[in-house]
Design brief:
The chain has helices spanning 45-48, 50-80, 97-123, 141-157, 164-177, 179-186, 241-247, 252-257, 268-275, 290-295, and strands at 86-89, 93-96, 210-212, 229-234, 277-281, 300-304, 316-318, 323-325, 332-334, 340-343, 352-353, 355-357, 363-365. It folds into two domains: 45-130 and 138-186, no CATH class; 202-365, Rieske [2Fe-2S] iron-sulphur domain (Rieske Iron-sulfur Protein, 3-layer Sandwich), CATH 2.102.10.10. It is built from ten helices and 13 strands.
Length: 382
């Protein structure tokens, strides 16, 4: 810093380079910048033509009404349809009517409110430009009274008094828009609702062989050595509903009920996402929980590999410690304690698949999962 630098001078006088000048320019700082002013105000058609204002009002009301109808469509779809009711759409294939209704309802609700509010502001609300000089944080009493007067005047010029239906439908649209999030928070995460309810069911059925993933070959108990781990899927996971009935896994009554989870249109990836299993073999005496020993086969145990925290695949098996690790948030499950959570944000153990062997020595499911798989939700938290 140059101690001999001259302080800033008054308007029009030269200042030192240490006060913001570019070296060699010789520029001088003005006392203040001239106000460039505002361009002349251009009135809108709705400002000068009452017919145009009426059309703009009807358009705003239409958008708010669309928003209300969208919210009602969301609520109706939530209660009227289930996830396994499908509709075929060109280019998209089979889509759940529930998901289609929820998505379309939410989209219309958001678009109606957004476009209606913007159109209202652009065509009917005052658009005159104003300039307010900066002032101390604590306004004078006169300025405060002026603010109140401005708000009152703004309420008048917003034309809510002359066009009350805008306020009525706009307020209704915004109020109803709060319903979908409440439904999702209260009902959508309940054990019997969506999406928690479908986590109770997977593709596994009694008698299905355990198949290596991705080879899809059956595995015998003798193939599972100490310390080994296999990624497993259920047999016939790519079969249709009719094929499952022919194989004896589905009854005609279940197939016709419409509630059976193995819908013939259910995608392979969706089935796989919930039914994937990790198979390991430990010394039987290392299993500290009686249930895990009874549900296993001579130290061979099978657990769902979807983390109960956020649904990431638990695929890291530590042979020496018998720990399963989720790579996303480091939730750690102890296989010797029935996959109890010993570290991380997960709140409940991984569900165990009860297994046995068939007459040929192949590992098979003795039953499906007895508890929901995947992330925890309301009512299922431990």
């Amino acid at each position: 810093m140059n101690d001999n630098a001259t302080p800033p001078s008054d308007a029009g006088s030269a200042v030192s380079l240490d006060h913001g000048h570019v070296e060699g320019t010789g520029e001088r700082l003005p006392a203040h910048f001239e106000n460039p002013g505002l361009p002349p105000h251009q009135p809108r058609w709705s400002d000068v033509d009452e017919g145009a204002a009426k059309r703009a009002e009807r358009q705003v009301l239409t958008f708010f009404l669309i928003s209300i109808l969208g919210t009602l469509l969301f609520v109706f779809s939530y209660f009227a349809f289930s996830i396994d009711q499908l509709i075929f759409l060109p280019w998209f294939g089979h889509i759940s009517i529930l998901h289609l209704g929820l998505g379309m309802g939410m989209a219309l609700s958001l678009l109606g409110i957004g476009i209606g509010a913007v159109h209202w502001a652009k065509t009917l609300m005052p658009d005159t430009e104003t300039v307010e000089e900066r002032h101390p944080l604590r306004s004078s009493d006169e300025a405060r009274r002026g603010l109140v007067d401005t708000l009152v005047e703004g309420n008048k010029t917003s034309q809510l008094g002359r066009r009350p239906m805008i306020g009525i439908l706009g307020g209704t649209a915004i109020g109803l828009f709060a319903v979908p999030p409440v439904l999702q928070a209260v009902g959508g995460l309940s054990p019997e609702g969506m999406p928690g309810g479908e986590l109770h069911h997977t593709f596994w059925q009694r008698g299905m062989r355990l198949m290596r993933d991705p080879e899809m070959t059956p595995i015998k108990a003798t193939d599972v050595t100490l310390g080994s781990a296999f990624h497993i899927l259920p047999e016939h996971i790519d079969a249709s509903l009719e094929q499952l009935e022919q194989l004896g896994y589905v009854t005609a009554q279940e197939r016709q009920s419409g509630d059976f989870q193995h819908d013939q249109h259910l995608g392979y990836l969706e089935r796989k996402a919930k039914a994937c299993v990790l198979l390991m073999r430990l010394q039987p005496e290392d299993l500290k929980v009686e249930k895990s020993r009874e549900w296993g086969y001579y130290g061979i145990v099978a657990y769902n590999k979807i983390c109960t925290h956020a649904g990431c695949p638990v695929g890291l098996y530590e042979q020496q410690t018998h720990h399963l690790l989720c790579p996303c948030h480091q939730s750690t499950f102890d296989v010797t304690q029935d996959c109890k959570v010993i570290f991380g944000p997960a709140k409940r153990p991984l569900p165990q698949l009860k297994i046995t062997v068939d007459d040929e020595g192949y590992l098979i499911a003795d039953q499906g999962f007895a508890e929901p798989v995947g992330p925890s939700f309301w009512g299922i938290h431990r």
